[in-house]
Amino acid sequence: MAKDLGDHLALLEINKEESKIASEGKEKNYRQVIEELIAEKEEEVALMMEEYKYLDSCYRLLGELTQRFQFNNDADKNRLIEKFAFLQDPDAKVKSMQAERRYYQDLAMYNQLLGQTDKVFWTRKPGLFPRPRHSFQRKR
């Protein structure tokens, strides 16, 4: 369930407990199990860091929005474009489900601040962020 929901903290906690159990056991394939668990942990940490990248930018953009709903001068717009250039990367590949959600929140606030209201409410482009269908999502 934690995997289906993209709950990286829960998955890291599970990984820690599995590592503890493996280290206490006397299995012959101990090294292999530990290496697999370490690889899984590193993957979850990377996914969590990706989520936090977009969460941090979400907080920064929200801070801008609380001061002004939309920038009116070019200097402010250029500063925003420079600071959040990664949101306009056409080759962006977001791996985490939670990071994808944050990405779209960021993009909506970013476009609102730039006065691009036609881009604030847009739908996810199929294939932009390829990821497996999760069991809780309904088939279309």
Largest beta sheet, briefly? none
As a whole number of angstroms, the C-alpha radius of gyration is 20 Å
User: Helicity level, as a percent range?
Assistant: 55-70%
What is the string of SSEs from the N terminus onward? Answer: HHHHH
How many angstroms does the end-to-end distance come to? 21 Å
What is the global morphology? elongated
> Per DSSP, what share of the residues sits in E-state strands of 2 or more residues?
under 5%
Q: pLDDT below 50 for ≥5 consecutive residues: which ranges?
A: 130-140
What does the average pLDDT come to? 83
- Look at the helices and sheets and give the structural class: mainly alpha
The number of helical elements comes to 5
Number of domains: 1
Using DSSP, what is the number of strands? 0
